[in-house]
Design goal:
The complex is a heterodimer of chains A (322) and B (341). Chain A has helices spanning 2-24, 54-68, 84-96, 109-121, 146-160, 177-190, 207-220, 232-244, 263-268, 282-293, and strands spanning 42-48, 73-79, 101-105, 126-129, 140-143, 164-171, 194-202, 226-229, 252-257, 274-277, 301-303, 307-310, 319-320. Chain A is of the alpha/beta class and 322 residues long. In chain A, strand 8 (226-229), helix 8 and strand 9 (252-257) form a beta-alpha-beta unit. Chain A is elongated and about 65 Å long. A two-stranded antiparallel sheet of chain B has the order 1-2. The two termini of chain B are 26 Å apart. Classes of the chains: A alpha/beta (322), B mainly alpha (341). The interface between A and B is medium-sized, with 33 and 34 residues.
Chain lengths: 322, 341
């Protein structure tokens, strides 16, 4: 019996160890605290809310690439795996390690406002990325405007369709702000024209769902002029559905996000007709951090510009919008 | 059939007469659920879209991948277990299949063989933990579910494995969609049926044969009905359990290849929550989660019921929120119809 107990205890400890290793979720960071700021080194702490999405993987990659150009920069990445409390702990850890600049892409505003505010009050410059927090206790916010991007997509669609046509809208999750904004901006831009949204469905940002919904749109509608999807995988799924039905030549496909290995690749391969970039701001965050280090004043809000990629300009890196 | 054989075949069930009566009524109830859903399509045909052939081809194609998972789950559930890892193993298989056939350019047969081997290994691992360490199937396969998802993300580097291949200098290079993926995503027999649907039906036939006609099937029912009685009657309980999970892993791997072929890429996030849909398909058909009761015919009806429900809601462009509520309500109606059998 006691042997049994011992065994159980041992396996329990082992399990805890494994769990601890699994939950650490950081890719670098053996005590940067002691040396932060000294010897001309510049330590940036980056708290990412979730690396399950390709777009956030890209954000981290952009930060790493920008940091690589400055040998004095060291970046500590933390991934909260979509857990608010874990991210809170990460922000507190980075703050107590006294990093030179703290980057946070928060999972949600309310619960992270306080820990970010505390770090800011302790004198650490804080750059908030993509999703805002409440109040004013941070140095600067860097993000893009989904509504503006949706509007740009709508304007472009109006132009290529000659102000008239039938559009299928494959929406991201309509309970999410990006989904609502990308839809609202698009509808604002096409309002007053003869473009009609003849079929709309939530595809939950997922490619297989988009293909399913597009199958239904194809079954119902004898003619479709254009598919507007709230992300590039959605537009790709719609293209595959149309191609399976032998109707891909009949319509145009437009997506959003323009990640290099997704949307931009699809445009380069002739699968999508256009994609609109939703910039990660990773590079801008590192540049802003360096400006803060030099003692420059940075604006409270930096709104990122977007690019449009079409077949004609994809090779030269797209066209800047507005 | 002698008295002895029949008792070996159904060691923990009622007498043969009652069993077949149970089976008949269960079949009738499963058919009732399917008819209910199809009637929904007749009442709301979405401007006639429901009566077009393409809609039905689409419904079958879309149900195929999860249907393959359901086929694999059947032996596990018959043996009184559960496999929550099938969705993650699907994702892992999709990534590995894409890595092998798109990035490495391996021939189709080798990619398929390697991915199936990996799926079988995942199944054997969960099966061994269940059979030898006597860990609850729910816990053992939950662990495999998390592990396989992590492995899928590691293997893919967190992004989708697509036809844009990053070179060593970071510049993207575009490759053709491999013939394996093209073949699986095609419509065959004069465009009347998708290849993945045929794959699904073939797998259903094989697993159905194993469950209904093969010795392994009798063992599965025996273990699921009463494990102790099965052991005392000389059934190799551990081997039976492990084999059930191996079949499940094999099916999940096959489903992963089909998923990757239809997406033309390996998505490490593919198959999230598919395990729940697959379990619902098996159970709505009338297979008992307690084990020992059910069959492939019933499972196929369950696959059709859920597949058509999904399709009918989609062609009618029902908003997401109402879709979730309707699906929940109809699953309850079908489950209650299956009860008391």
């Amino acid at each position: 019996m006691s042997r049994m107990l011992r065994l159980t205890r041992r396996s329990f400890t082992l399990g805890l160890l494994v769990l601890a290793c699994a939950c650490k979720g950081e890719s670098k960071g053996s005590g940067p605290a002691e040396e932060g700021g000294k010897k001309g080194r510049f330590v940036i702490g980056m708290s990412q809310c979730n690396l399950g999405e390709p777009w956030r993987v890209q954000m981290n990659a952009d930060i790493a690439a920008a940091a690589k150009e400055h040998p004095e920069i060291e970046v500590i990445f933390k991934d909260a795996q979509n857990d608010t409390l874990k991210q809170r702990a990460h922000v507190e850890e980075l703050a107590s390690a006294k990093v030179d600049v703290l980057l946070v892409s928060p999972k949600e505003a309310q619960p992270l406002t306080e820990p970010i505010g505390k770090a800011f009050d302790a004198g650490i410059p804080v750059i908030v990325l993509d999703r805002a927090v409440l109040g004013e206790r941070f140095t600067t916010f860097i993000g893009a405007d989904n509504k503006k991007i949706g509007r740009a997509a709508g304007e472009w669609v109006k132009k290529v369709l000659g102000g008239k046509g039938k559009v299928v809208e494959l929406k991201g999750l309509m309970t999410s702000t990006p989904g609502q904004d990308r839809s609202a901006g698009f509808r604002e831009a096409i309002a007053g024209s003869e473009i009609a949204i003849v079929f709309e469905a939530d595809m939950k940002w997922l490619e297989p769902e988009a293909r399913k919904e597009m199958d239904s749109a194809l079954a119902r509608l004898p003619k479709i002029d254009l598919v507007y999807a709230h992300n590039d995988p959605g537009a790709h799924g719609a293209y595959l559905a149309a191609r399976a039905a032998g109707r891909e030549k009949e319509m145009k496909f437009v997506g959003i996000d323009a990640l290099p290995h997704e949307g931009v690749s699809y445009v380069a391969q002739g699968i999508l007709d256009a994609t609109f970039q939703y910039p990660t701001g990773g590079r801008e965050a590192v540049e802003t951090a360096l400006r803060i280090r030099k003692g420059e004043k940075v604006p409270k809000t930096i709104t990122l510009g977007s690019r449009r990629f079409t077949k004609d300009d994809v090779q030269k890196g797209g066209e800047i919008i507005e | 059939m002698t008295e002895h054989q029949s008792s070996l075949q159904t060691p923990a069930r009622r007498s043969p007469g009652k069993t077949s009566a149970w089976h008949r009524s269960s079949l009738a109830r499963a058919l009732f659920s399917l008819a209910l859903v199809l009637m929904l399509g007749v009442i709301f045909p979405a401007e006639g879209a429901f009566f077009r052939l393409g809609t039905h081809q689409g419904a079958l194609r879309q149900a195929s991948v999860v249907g393959i998972l359901a086929c694999g789950l059947l032996p596990v559930i018959l043996a009184g277990g559960i496999d929550l890892s099938v969705g993650s193993v699907l994702g892992l298989s999709a990534v590995v299949a894409a890595k092998l056939s798109i990035h490495a350019g391996e021939p189709a047969w080798l990619s398929v063989l390697l991915v199936l081997g990996m799926g079988a290994a995942c199944g054997a691992a969960s099966g061994s933990v269940v059979a030898f360490a006597r860990v609850q199937p729910f816990v053992a396969t939950l662990a495999m579910m998390v592990f396989a998802r992590g492995l899928a993300k590691t293997t893919s580097g967190g992004t989708k494995v697509a036809t844009a291949v990053p070179g060593p200098d970071g510049v993207l290079r575009y490759v053709e969609v491999p013939p394996l993926f093209r073949a699986l995503d095609a419509q065959v027999l004069d465009g009347s049926v998708a290849t993945v649907t045929l794959v699904f039906l073939a797998i259903a036939a094989i697993v159905g044969f194993l469950c209904a006609r093969h010795r392994l099937g009798r063992y599965l029912y025996a273990v699921g009905g009463n494990e102790e009685a099965a052991r005392l009657s000389g059934v190799p309980v551990r081997a039976t359990k492990i084999l059930a999970y191996v079949i499940s892993g094999l099916c999940a791997a096959a489903a992963g290849i089909c998923q990757a072929a239809q997406e033309q890429q390996g998505d490490p996030e593919a198959g999230v929550t598919y395990e729940l849909t697959a379990i619902a398909m098996v159970v709505i058909g009338g297979t008992s989660l307690k084990g020992g009761r059910g069959g492939m015919g019933l499972t196929l009806l369950g696959v059709l019921t859920i597949g058509y429900l999904d399709k009918i809601l989609s062609i009618n462009a029902v908003p997401e929120a109402s879709r979730l509520m309707l699906t929940g309500a109809i699953v309850i109606v079908a489950a209650v119809a299956q009860k008391n059998s």
